[in-house]
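Checked the freezer inventory, then went back to the computational side. Two predictions to log before the end of the day. The first one is the construct we discussed on Monday; recording sequence and tokens without edits.
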Amino acid sequence: MAATLLFHLPMTEHDSQQFLRDLDKKLWSAADRLRSNLDAAVYKHAVLGLIFLKYVSDSFEARQREIAAGLRNAKSEYFLDPADYKSPKAYEAAIHAELEERDYYLEKNVFWVPALARWQKLQDSAKLPPGTIIDVKNGKTWQYKLTSIGKLIDDALDAVEKENPKLKGVLNKNYTQLQIDPANLGKLIDNIAEIPFLHAELNAKDILGHVYEYFLGQFAIAEGKKGGQYFTPKSIVTLIVEMLEPFSGRVFDPACGSGGFFVQSERFIQAHGGKLGQLSVYGQESNPTTWRLAAMNLAIRGIDFNFGKEPANSFTNDQHPDLRADFVMANPPFNMDEWWDAKLEEDPRWKYGTPPAGNANFAWLQHMLHHLAPNGSMALLLANGSMSSGQSGEGDIRRALVAADLVECMVALPGQLFTNTQIPACIWFLTKNKKARAKFRGRAGETLFIDARKIGYMADRVLRDFTEEDIELIVGVFREWKSGTDYEDVSGFCKSADLKLIQQHDFVLTPGRYVGAEEIEETGEPFEVKMPRLVADLKIQFKTSIKLDAAVRDSLKIIGYEL
């Protein structure tokens, strides 16, 4: 596309972010216009499946260009010498044949894309009438009969899946059943074709990964309560990852949704000078369609992952029974009431008490602890009730967790952070080892409480969000406390408490109980001076109010009304 050439211009980091924001709005606006009456939950898979197909095709073509250049470069390991061929035509034929060798792509972890699924072929074919015979060249020429655009996309995705074992069962091949007008589906393909992969600052993985994540968030908002089950706000994910600091090792999410914690963990490593692959990713998700979303989300970024053999219930069909992870993080459904199964009675995971059958909060917490390595750390988003409830044995479980010195930090969050619930939430940070090691001091018998309920801003009329500065504030306090450098309790915000203090509060872990009231800055104005001033101001406001009342009454009389 000619427009793509614009993205070669040198750009600053600010320009790159502005480019992505403009791209987000343009693509979402165009895609949403084509949705018509189709439910967002259905349309989501149509859009995200095509974005994935665009990514694998773009990556394949980029690698193909590298190989083509190497085949003609005498200094390259791939070089084909023209002198070895009888004619220029034979040489070009050999070049084209080599470009279809799978090993060139697999050695760079690039998905092999069959000819039918390559984006330009797909885009061109989508404009043809049903019944058209399409010539497809994939080493040899064969023919494909076009019956519908939906069937074409399904066949393309099926071909990609068959050629790449890692994608087995991952791609959502149901475009034939989607009730999208063929013309709109063709326009959607053209719309996604405008996602560029040439940019001065960003590569295809960065751009398409960003677009994929943005669309996940927009669909979560569009779906409301249902959509939020697979999407955790980016700022909350960032906060948790920055506090856990997963530099290397095994990371596990037993309710992984669309895989946001894994993506942010890899970003954290790269931002701190590490490399992709320092983390081994393990996840589990019970919803089949969400399981596929997560797999595509990670595949786009080149992150290797193990999500088990199939989508499955974490409690009754644990896909990683022997896993002991260095970092465990999750945002499971809050207060899930229909989770219990009779076979969970006497389960070894319930080391600190059997969770109530009517609420899975402490089941999730203990399931995660069960999978945590001896020196591991974990973070869990739960409803605020988990910090204080004494019903059905929850208070006893909480008491046992504190007594075992597992609770490292409690963070109370502000409301309106989630698309799927208005229930106030908190973050539990737990660790199995508070002993001094590396850059951390010994913290045995201590728990940090952070009350972040007043932090953040309203991103719109419905949702609240954190700024980067908000995240840095919370993370900074946590790191200072763990390292023992420059930490101080701040009234109304943070407090380091020992076991004795927690016992005095009957093992309730609500931060507000510990941090106290925020200190109000004294103005230095004596009461005998302040009070007369305030009374005088109030008199002036009363007089102004009386004048406004009279003016309103006069105006109403003019038009025939009277109070």
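The second is the one RB wanted added to the comparison set:
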Amino acid sequence: MIGQTKFKSAAAVLGVLVVVALATGLAWAVDPSRLVNAEKDPNSWLSYNGTYHAWRYSSLGQINRANVGNLKVAWIFQPGMPATEHGLEGTPLAVDGVVYVSGSYSRVWALDGATGKVLWFNYPKIDMQLKARQTHVPYNRGLAVGHGHVYVGTIDGRLLALDIKSGKQVWESQLVDSKKETVGFTGAPLVVKDMILIGSQAGEWPTRGRIFAVDSKTGKERWKFWTVGGPEDPKAQATWGGDSWKTGGGGGWMTGSYDPDLNLVYWGTGNPAPLYDWAAGDWMTKGPRPGINLYITSIVALDADTGKLNWYFQELPHDPWDFDSSVGEMLLLDRDGKKLLVHANKGGPVFVLDRTNGKVQNAYMGNRVFNFIKGVDAKTGKLIEPWYPTEGKVHPWFCPWIAGAYSWNSGAYNPKAGLWYKIVQEGCMDLEIVRTTPITEPYAQLNIGANFNFKGTPDGPAYGHLDAREPVTGALKWSVNYPVPPLGSLLATGGELVFLGDMEGRVHAHDAETGQDLWSFNNGSGHRGGIISYAVGGKQYVAVASGTGSLVADAYAGLYPERLGHYAYSAAVVVFSLP
């Protein structure tokens, strides 16, 4: 992704950093050049999606398809309640032999990567009155490391910087007035140069979402991007009828990617408020939020230094279905001289964009069961025959369900196999549109605009599948069905393996080329978090965040009582290695 001269220079700097860190035993030598070249440092896992490419790929191959059947538990870390409420949804980080883990309520631990020994912990005080008003809490989905700090967001609207050596808080920045807006942060921050980026929740809350960049040393805000157009962006504001922009939702609640070549940040934005719209096909001129509603359900490309919008692509104009663009990873690839971005929308469309300008290069459907559209145009990315639910009746088979075909979890890409691995959910729901009025006083309250209940598909029970595709063309190489849709993030490795944690308690290793299930182990609880690989002292480890719970997972328990009813919502980090 970078020129040969620049690469050699960065690699030399990286080599010095790694040598210094290993020689001194200090896990703090993480500066911007090391993050840019993270793929050259497979012994560590330096950011939420592994690298800025968002491949979730480790080139480590000590554990491979020939010996994965010999994997054993190396150590287990159990954070305990309340940090495991809703399970562990975060992805651990690993830096020079130290593993960093986040739990619910933004609790953070530093662990010895070889033994699991707790080196330090930090338990921030959280506004519990605010927590009681929120729905998508109290989990935390991940951390960032850099500049001598560990960074974590909180559900009450703060970004915290912890000293990476001691865990003591260095600064906090109150970025969102959560007492008024109700929302905060659940996604992992992203270190870009000397800044920390993080996106707020919003979506079905009648507020305006933002993506923030703050100074890495002080926490002072450097810039912010409003995901719902307002006075600072008259063109975008004009896409919201009346004053609907004031309560438009949006947000950027998951983690984006950074492109050092173009100095652009790519971030997916959330759904609008209300979620569902009673205007049906007249949504351009009628209903609670007339217009296409920029920049909800979009990919935005922002200048990393200023936050200025470079380009955008709105995946679902207006989005009356809650199929937003915050989910999953912003996958960066270079193909045939083109710089590409691949992203799977929550509803099932996959868009391949030129990341220099946002132009569509290809589009295809990744799910099997859907009726909100007939498909997506491969040349333009436009939706084919979109269907809009109407007020006053129950739509008995709306597909996919509100949890989406693609959930918030990330897939993985193996550059050796050239395959992109994604989990797909196949399920539907009964949907009834309900008129609502946004409530913002004395604080913002949930604004969904519908009643719904989960169900199977017209052909049988709901299920999930792990797909291996060529990401640009969409060609399917193989697919493996799961009776209960998995909800965790994936890991691909140089050992030609794909690791997946299912909802029934088992973590699996699939053959990257064939999909064959080569190994599994029962962790005792379902999986919602991420899986990483790292090495200490020449030994490769695979760390799995286990534990379940959440609005979606709890709905699964009702759909599959015979499969999920006996699993306790406990949680642990389970780490594996070869004997």
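For RB: Helices lie at 4-24, 32-36, 128-133, 178-181, 234-237, 551-559, 561-564. The chain has seven helices and 38 strands. Let me know if you want it refolded.
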